[in-house]
Design goal:
Layout: E1 5-8, E2 11-14, H1 19-25, E3 37-38, H2 41-44, E4 47-51, E5 56-60, E6 65-74, H3 75-82, H4 104-107, E7 113-116, H5 126-132, E8 138-141, H6 143-164, E9 166-174, E10 183-184, E11 189-190, E12 194-201, E13 206-213, E14 220-223, H7 225-232, E15 234-235, H8 242-245, H9 258-263, H10 277-290
Antiparallel strand pairs: 1-2, 1-4, 3-15, 4-5, 5-6, 6-9, 7-8, 9-12, 10-11, 12-13, 13-14
Helix pairs in contact: 3-6
C-alpha cells in the first residue's frame, strides 16, 4: 500500500509506515523545490499539504477544498497519459480530518460541476489518475467553464508541455473579497470567482498565467504571474526571481473544447482579451481589495 504524509506547518500526521519516501518526492513537483506561498495569515490558517504521485495540493479548512495544486508536467508524462484510458470516480479525501473534507453531497444538486485543479488527463497511470478525483483536488465550477474554456486551458497547457518538454504548473481558485461568497452543500463550500493556472517554462525561461471567470459566460485572460499574485494573494513560484514573473510569456491560445464547439451559438465565441464589463468589474474588485 502506497503511503502519504500530511503536513500543515508543524502538523505531521503519518498515515502509514514508510511515508518518508513519499514526502521526499514532493519537492520535485515545485519550481526550485519550493511550494507556492500564501501571502495572508487568513489563507495560511488551517491548511494541510498533501503529496500525491503526480501532484501536490494544499487543502484548506476554511474552504474545505484546495487553495492550489502543483505539478511538474513533462512530455513523457503527457505521452503516457494519452495512452491511459481516463477513468475514476470522485470521492472524499479520507486523509483529511472531517472538519476539512468536502463530500459528494456538497455538489449534489448544486448546479456546479466538480472541477479538477490538476486534471486527470495529465496523469500517466490509473493510480495517479484516481488520486486526481479526490475532492481535495476539486472546486465548484460552472459547467460552461469546466467543460468549455477551462478544458481548453488544460489542453493548451498539455500541448505547450509536449512542445517544451517540461512545465511547472500551479492551479487554484480565486475568491472575490468584496462580495459574500455563494456557497454550496451542507458544508458550505464557497464558489470561487475565478480559476487560474500559472505556468513556469524553464526552457523559456519565463512565466505566465491563465485566469478565467467562473460564471455562466466565462471569459479568460492571459496575464503575468505578478498580477495574478496580487489578485489571489498566492505566489505560485516563490523560488523564481521577481523579474521573471513581471511579464507573461507568449503563451498558447486557449483551445476550444468539444463541449464549447458543440454548445456555442453562431454569434458567440470564447473571449480571450478580458474586455467585457463583467470581467473588468471582477478584476478591479479583486485588485482594490488587495491594495
Amino acid at each position: 500500500m502506497r503511503t502519504i504524509r500530511i503536513f500543515s506547518g508543524v502538523l505531521a500526521l503519518t498515515m502509514a509506515a514508510g511515508a518518508q519516501a513519499q514526502t521526499a518526492s514532493c519537492p520535485r513537483l515545485f519550481a526550485g523545490g519550493v511550494p507556492p506561498a500564501l501571502l495572508s495569515d487568513i489563507q495560511r490558517s488551517g491548511t494541510v499539504l498533501l503529496c500525491n504521485d503526480g501532484y501536490a495540493v494544499l487543502a484548506s479548512e476554511r474552504t474545505k477544498g484546495p487553495l492550489w495544486s502543483a505539478e511538474d508536467l513533462t512530455e513523457e508524462q503527457i505521452e503516457t497519459a494519452r495512452q491511459t484510458q481516463r477513468q475514476g470516480h470522485f470521492e472524499a479525501d479520507e486523509r483529511l480530518p472531517a472538519s476539512m473534507q468536502a463530500t459528494l453531497y456538497d455538489f449534489r444538486g448544486s448546479g456546479y460541476d466538480r472541477g479538477h485543479l490538476t486534471p486527470s488527463g495529465d496523469e500517466p497511470d490509473l493510480q495517479s489518475q484516481a488520486q486526481s478525483f479526490l475532492l481535495s483536488n476539486v472546486i465548484p465550477q460552472t459547467s460552461e467553464l469546466n467543460r468549455g474554456a477551462w478544458e481548453g486551458v488544460e489542453s493548451a497547457v498539455r500541448g505547450w508541455a509536449d512542445q517544451e518538454g517540461e512545465l511547472f504548473v500551479v492551479t487554484g481558485p480565486g475568491y472575490d473579497p468584496d462580495h459574500t461568497q455563494e456557497t454550496i452543500g451542507p458544508d458550505l463550500l464557497p464558489v470561487p470567482a475565478v480559476t487560474w493556472k500559472a505556468i513556469y517554462d524553464p526552457a523559456g525561461p519565463g512565466t505566465g498565467a491563465y485566469v478565467c471567470l467562473n460564471t455562466a459566460h466565462p471569459v479568460c485572460k492571459i496575464t503575468s504571474v505578478a498580477l495574478l499574485t496580487r489578485l489571489v494573494n498566492i505566489d505560485p513560484f516563490p523560488a523564481l526571481p521577481a523579474a521573471l514573473k513581471e511579464r507573461a510569456l507568449s503563451m498558447p491560445p486557449i483551445r476550444q473544447s468539444p463541449y464549447a464547439l458543440e454548445h456555442r451559438s453562431g454569434t458567440t465565441k470564447l473571449e480571450q482579451d478580458w474586455k467585457t464589463v463583467a470581467a473588468q468589474k471582477a478584476l478591479h474588485s479583486l485588485l482594490r481589495a488587495l491594495e
